[in-house]
TrEMBL record:
Disulfide bonds join C116-C120. GO terms for biological process: proteolysis. The active site is at D103, D295. It comes from Paxillus rubicundulus Ve08.2h10. This is Peptidase A1 domain-containing protein. The keyword Hydrolase applies. Keywords: Aspartyl protease, Disulfide bond, Hydrolase, Protease, Signal.
Length: 464
């Protein structure tokens, strides 16, 4: 089974549920993200987290325009100092909102069900009896992660996000959740990968919308905030935005560099073509050995041991970690580490603040790049939020491709700026699609301003 990237980092998933609908603008919207700084962690806590993150990733990736149709924005929440980013979607009739992790590294939607027996204490759950459109498909649903498993049944119901609705969307109504996989206020996960990697085999919510023509443009995009280096970060902060069907031109500058996926769509893959550390070019393999999964549900960056070793060889004083830090490296905190990555186009710098995962002694820090030797059918590199916080990232359905652009001053100005996190809202629907039909029913709403619906994305600390 595939493992959602967000689970690796930390089991602190939070989701808020709001039963009362709030009026929002129509489809063609954006989702705001909120960020929550991590609770003070000891070095041992960080070590346990790091070990779990690496093991979860290994499991997840198989170790061992004529007229506008629809645009939507979902505001994100940044929690635990960039450990994860979440938003919300609405489920059922009448619709009830739930906070979920948004994960481009997996492709299943699931939420905790009211019949949940284990692992769901204190979190919001979905009550199927309260939805007039709920249907039980009578099949078992399960997804296994490095840090646990979810089990339930496969069901279907209406799902709304950012002004879009998919009727009869398949999802997992989960009744058993491994300990600590979910922490309030997060109630589930929304996979944004391709159907071919779905554990249930069902078409994902996003792919149904994109293939039906419900979006103005066949793409979705992320902008993530940075609070990892903010000393005054609150537990939850604005996390950025996730848009469907359009590009928010206020959040990036220059051109978006699109690179086509090198294989039939599965994970969101790109070949890594260039890597520099402290200005020195690192030799990396070519072909499939360079394939990198661009994963919003993963916090850090994992890569093959031989290349990771060369990366840290460019940093004087670096040493391999031991114990829980096996696979990671320490380096002098006084050293500013400059890394840049190219995926066939421009070279994109990674902020030194993002390279530094945490400080483990008075002088030593842990780097955010770690050794990850995946299975033969999995990508060699898993590139998570350590990189994605530094770019505006676009995931395009047709042609299948990923694009990056430089963040604008507006986007950069959101980093480290305290503010209230977005609240879950349920807005009016401008485009409705029936799952499996590939037909979109578009309702035009005149004279509307931007519709904002809060959605969640797993951005960060964990590789599922």
């Amino acid at each position: 089974m595939k493992l959602p990237a967000w689970l690796l980092l930390s089991p602190l998933f939070t989701v808020q549920t709001t039963a009362a609908p709030n009026l929002s603008p129509p489809a063609g919207q954006s989702i705001s993200l909120a960020r929550r700084p991590p609770a003070v962690r000891s070095v041992d806590d960080w070590g346990s987290w790091a070990k779990n993150e690496r093991e979860v990733l290994l499991t997840k990736y198989g170790a061992t325009f004529p007229r506008k149709r629809g645009e939507g924005t979902n505001l994100l929440t940044n929690q635990n100092a960039d450990s994860s980013y979440f938003g919300s979607l609405a489920l059922g009739t009448p619709p009830v909102s739930f906070n979920v992790i948004l994960d481009t590294g997996s492709a299943d939607l699931w939420v905790a069900d009211s019949g949940c027996q284990t692992g769901c204490s204190g979190i919001s759950v979905f009550d199927s009896a309260s939805s007039s459109t709920y249907q039980n498909r009578g099949q078992e649903f399960s997804v296994t992660y490095g840090s646990g498993q979810v089990i339930g049944i496969l069901a279907e119901d209406a799902v709304q996000m950012a002004g879009f609705s998919v009727q009869n969307q398949p999802f997992g109504a989960v009744t058993q959740i491994s300990s600590r996989l979910l922490t309030s206020p997060v109630s589930g996960l929304l996979g944004l990968g391709w159907q071919s990697i779905s554990s249930s085999g069902q078409m994902p919510f996003w792919e149904t919308l994109a293939s039906s023509g419900a979006w103005s443009q066949p793409l979705m995009a992320f902008q993530l905030t940075r609070f990892v280096n903010a000393t005054n970060a609150a537990p939850v902060e604005p996390g950025g935005s996730f848009t469907m069907g359009f590009l928010n031109e206020s959040l990036y500058t220059g051109q978006i560099d699109f690179q086509n996926l090198p294989t039939t769509p599965s994970y969101w893959l790109l070949p890594m073509t260039e890597l520099t550390v402290q200005g020195n070019a690192i030799s990396i393999p070519t072909g499939s050995a360079s394939y990198s999964a661009i994963d919003t549900g993963t916090t850090l960056i994992g890569g093959p041991s031989n290349v990771i070793q060369v990366i840290y060889a460019q940093i004087p004083g670096s040493q391999p970690g031991t114990g829980n830090w096996e696979g990671y490296y320490t380096y002098p905190c006084s050293t500013t580490v400059n890394v840049a990555i190219s995926f066939g186009g421009p070279s994109w710098p990674v902020s030194p603040a993002d390279f530094k995962l945490t400080q483990v002694s008075t002088s030593q820090c842990i780097g955010a790049f770690f050794e990850l030797n995946t299975g033969s059918n999995a990508p060699e590199w898993i590139v998570g939020d350590t990189f994605l916080k530094n770019v505006y990232s676009v995931f395009r359905y047709s042609p299948p491709s990923i694009g990056f652009a430089a963040l604008s001053e507006t986007a950069l100005g959101m980093n480290g700026v305290n503010g209230p996190p977005p609240t879950a809202t349920i807005g009016s629907i401008s485009a409705t699609v029936t799952a499996g039909s590939n037909r979109a029913s578009i309702k035009w709403i005149p004279n509307w301003s931007e519709l904002v619906v809060v959605c969640g994305i797993a951005a960060g600390a964990a590789l599922l």
